[in-house]
Amino acid sequence: MSDTQRLDQWLWHARFFKTRGLATKLVSRGQVQVDGDKIQKPSYGLRPGRTLTFKQAKQIRVIRVEALATRRGPAPEAQQLYTDLSPPSRNDGPENPRFEGRGRPTGKDRRNARLYRDTPLE
């Protein structure tokens, strides 16, 4: 087995991208850094111990390569190929509304609303 592996192939094997074509596009655009250097060749020879930095789904990923891949296996196998050094994500977006537990109005709730609506204001 070789001591290097194509960068786009490794990103696909490690399950960061759904297709190898997506990984190739990202590398070709120069959006992947290896040890701080922008790489634009998908055929770049990747070795264990290198640090990758790239953007994935509005999040900056920092990954240290631990091993080279021989196949695109299941997720637990892919997670053994790297160590995630990414900073914890900040959740700046609005919080989802909480469920108050009341659900659909009952008949009593509808009657009370009707009585309240029909009362004349003084």
Query: What is the tally of beta strands?
Result: 7
Class derived from helix and strand content: alpha+beta
Helix content: 25-40%
Described by strand count, sense and barrel closure, the largest sheet is: 5 strands, antiparallel
Q: Globular, elongated, flat, extended or rod-shaped: what is the shape?
A: elongated
Helical segment tally? 4
% residues in beta strands? 15-25%
Order of helices and strands: EHHEEEEEHEH
User: Span between N and C termini?
Assistant: 89 Å
CATH topology of the domain at 5-84: Structural Genomics Hypothetical 15.5 Kd Protein In mrcA-pckA Intergenic Region, Chain A
CATH architectural label of the domain at 5-84: Roll
Please give the CATH class of the domain at 5-84: Alpha Beta
CATH homologous superfamily (4th level) name of the domain at 5-84: RNA-binding S4 domain
Which strand order do you get reading across the main beta sheet?
Answer: 3-2-5-6-7
Residue runs with pLDDT of under 50 for 5 or more positions: none
Query: Mean pLDDT score, rounded?
Result: 87
Radius of gyration: 26 Å
